[in-house]
Write a structure and sequence with these properties.
The chain is an alpha/beta fold. The chain has a single domain (33-291), classed as P-loop containing nucleotide triphosphate hydrolases (Rossmann fold, 3-Layer(aba) Sandwich). It is 42% helix and 15% strand. It is built from 13 helices and 8 strands. It has an 8-stranded mixed sheet, sandwiched between helices. The longest helix has 19 residues, at 8-26.
């Protein structure tokens, strides 16, 4: 009696994943000459925003880049995925915004690897929107903190900063937009994918005109792609048609492994690096690295 052969479709899929992983290993991963600061934003929830932030950060750090993730969402999901402590007594982005701590005082190493760090978000951040209203230069609090940190001995060798925003357009997100030079927008390949995008782009235009002229939408990433459905294919085509110079070629698929990883305090890049989701996020990170930042 002989073993049953592996079904051809599964064998083909495994061979393709192996080839993609080898291509990533053989690729050139250039490091930027100065830190690239991204805001990961979409006021529509459930589009893979936090997942995108932590996995692209992890993929870049695995290739030798030193990366900082700033968790600006009171839910603290990015902090959880990176395996850093964000209990209420732990200082983090809240203390940075109100000015009692510097980034250097609150930054923690991720459990993923030594080159990946995180400024954690605690539940205290939920009240920051109200407290910021009465503070001077309220829109520039994060920007100044990042300038101070990246210009200090602790922050001079960072290559990337990713700011994970809450799904809203309040003062926390405004601080992220003012503090960044690039915006990365994850868009799910589902119905209503483009809903609210025009509002987000309009907000970014206003911020560029009034607060941060350096800000550009440099990257759009299509997430939750299901190649079995015509709808996902159509959404991907629509986004690529509307934003041909901005959208990445990489499509991030729906993946059980991507959903499982945070429960283990890990990114999927660390949890299951051979999975389709991990490879897709690594490919997206490579595209970002090879494209370079805005001139």
């Amino acid at each position: 009696m002989t073993d049953n052969p592996t079904p051809a479709p599964l064998a083909d899929e495994l061979e393709t994943l192996f080839a993609r992983k080898k291509a990533l290993a053989d690729a050139r991963w250039p490091l930027p000459p100065r830190p690239r600061i991204f805001t990961i934003s979409n006021q529509k929830g459930g589009v893979g925003k936090t997942t995108t932030a932590v996995n692209i950060a992890a993929a870049l750090s695995q290739q030798g880049a030193r990366v900082l993730v700033v968790d600006l969402d009171p839910q603290g999901n990015a902090s959880t995925a990176l395996g850093v402590n964000h209990q209420s007594h732990i200082p983090g982005t809240y203390e940075v915004l109100i000015g009692t701590h510097s980034i250097a005082q609150v930054v923690q190493k991720s459990s993923d690897n030594a080159l990946l760090s995180c400024v954690p978000a605690t539940i205290n951040l939920a009240g920051a929107e109200i407290e910021l209203v009465g503070l001077e230069h309220r829109e520039f609090r994060l920007r100044q903190a990042l300038v101070d940190f990246l210009g200090s001995a602790d922050g001079t060798d960072y290559h990337y900063v990713f700011i994970d925003c809450p799904p809203s357009l309040g003062l926390l997100t405004l601080n992220a937009f003012v503090g960044a030079s690039e915006v990365l927008i994850p868009i799910q390949c589902e119905y209503y994918a483009l809903e609210g995008l025009s509002q987000l782009l309009g907000t970014i235009d206003m911020i560029r005109d009034n607060l941060n002229p350096r800000l550009v939408v440099s990257t759009i990433l299509l997430t939750m792609f299901d190649q079995r459905t015509n709808l996902a294919q159509q959404v991907a085509e629509d986004v690529q048609q509307h934003f041909p110079d901005t959208v990445l070629k990489t499509l991030v698929p729906r993946s059980v492994r991507v959903s499982e990883a945070p429960s283990f305090g890990q990114t999927v890049v660390a949890y299951d690096p051979s999975s389709s989701g991990a490879i897709a996020y690594a490919e997206a990170a490579l595209e970002i690295a090879q494209r370079g930042g805005p001139v």
